[in-house]
Specification:
By secondary structure, the chain is an alpha+beta fold. It contains 15 helices and eleven strands.
């Protein structure tokens, strides 16, 4: 059987340089590896044996910005990962990144002439690697985007292209931070590998049939892949029957992720646990300002510059008007609590025995959290 020409090129380059060589895909997944030449580190050994690099190693490589490189660069050593330095040359064909050719260079001794040889090999394997690289948008990924989109016609078309799921939950992952787009996209795709998902502009949506613990596991892997360059939050929509309702779960997941990243400040938020935020976050971000606060809350704040009465009202409303429970929350005597509530009525004219007043004040107080 004829040997793969790319493997042959890798073996010949390694033999000529007397250095260990690999070609990875753009996500730093091993495609081809030469024999060891005595310069291997634990990272290389594990990658060759397991056919996969550790997530933190992938993150370290991606964090160097390799997705944007057009010429050779250095992947610096990382003692914490037991990783030596490497020379990395992007393998490109017609401008597209197809792979990463890496040569061990722990002591920085690669010469300019040797670098020219490595560059020539990268140019040689690029057209051979091109047919193996998927071109254009993935139809399944586009179908997922259509399925959770707003266009009913596109949703119906997507249903015919995707496998049936009796029950589905949509989870949305989003990234914050100033990392390179290529690093972010690769991290999301790697973390979601094997799932029905779509990645666009630093946001990923994934369809799962059993969401228990899934978001936490993915976030843990993304943190490793990020190498500290960005953070990620997740929103979990509600479970729906069949893919035809996936767009409903997706809308919920979108709001839940927004809550996780802003008002709740947690890694994962579930739609079922949002409470009033499930309503308030439907307000467009541009409309979330002091002008959106109800007049009742403005009156309370104006009469209470120190905030004591406002905090008391919030505790009272959070406990559904249960005086003893509110007093315990505030660590005050019930007599003090009722005195403060009387002050609210006297200073503002607000009647906390009125259900409409309670509702408006409570929503206003919760909404105000989004503005702080």
């Amino acid at each position: 059987m004829a040997q793969d020409p790319i493997q042959t090129a890798v073996d010949r380059l390694a033999a000529r340089l007397r250095r260990s060589v690999v070609i990875n895909d753009p996500g730093v997944h091993l495609l081809y590896a030469s024999a060891h030449y005595g310069d291997e580190d634990p990272v290389r050994i594990r990658a060759v044996l397991q056919r996969e690099a550790d997530a933190k190693v992938i993150g370290h490589v991606l964090a160097q910005g390799v997705a944007t490189w057009t010429s050779a660069g250095i992947i610096p050593p990382n003692p914490g990962l037991q990783m030596h330095a490497r020379v990395c040359l992007p393998v490109r064909w017609q401008g597209d990144l197809l792979g990463l050719l890496m040569v061990m260079d722990a002591d920085g001794s690669l010469t300019t002439r040797e670098l020219a040889v490595i560059t020539a090999v990268a140019e040689q394997v690029a057209p051979l690697l091109a047919p193996r690289s998927p071109g254009g948008p993935d139809p399944a990924e586009q179908a997922v985007l259509d399925l959770v989109g707003d266009d009913p016609l596109q949703r119906r078309r997507a249903l015919a292209e995707l496998p049936a799921m009796p029950e589905v939950t949509v989870i949305e992952f989003g990234v914050t931070g100033g990392a390179a787009a290529g690093h972010v996209e690769t991290a999301l795709r790697t973390a979601l590998s094997g799932r029905l998902c779509a990645v666009r502009d630093g946001v990923a949506v994934v369809l799962v049939d059993d969401p228990r613990g899934y978001a936490d596991r993915v976030l843990h892997r993304i943190r490793d892949l990020s190498a500290g360059r960005f953070d990620c939050t997740a929103g979990v929509g509600g479970a729906v029957s069949g893919l035809e309702h996936a767009f409903e779960s997706a809308a919920q997941a979108r709001l839940a992720r927004r809550a996780a990243a802003t008002v709740l400040e947690v890694p994962v938020a579930a739609w079922a646990e949002l409470g009033p935020w499930a309503i308030l976050l439907r307000i467009p971000p541009g409309e979330l300002s002091e002008a959106a606060l109800p007049d009742e809350l403005r009156r309370l704040r104006e009469a209470d510059p120190g905030g004591v009465l406002t905090r008391t009202v919030r505790a009272y409303l959070d406990r559904a008007g249960n005086g003893p429970a509110a007093a315990a929350t505030l660590h005050i005597h019930r007599t003090t609590l009722y005195y403060r509530l009387r002050q609210v009525r006297e200073l503002t004219g607000l009647d906390l025995d009125d259900g409409r007043t309670r509702l408006i004040l409570h929503l206003g107080l919760v909404l105000a959290e989004a503005l702080t």
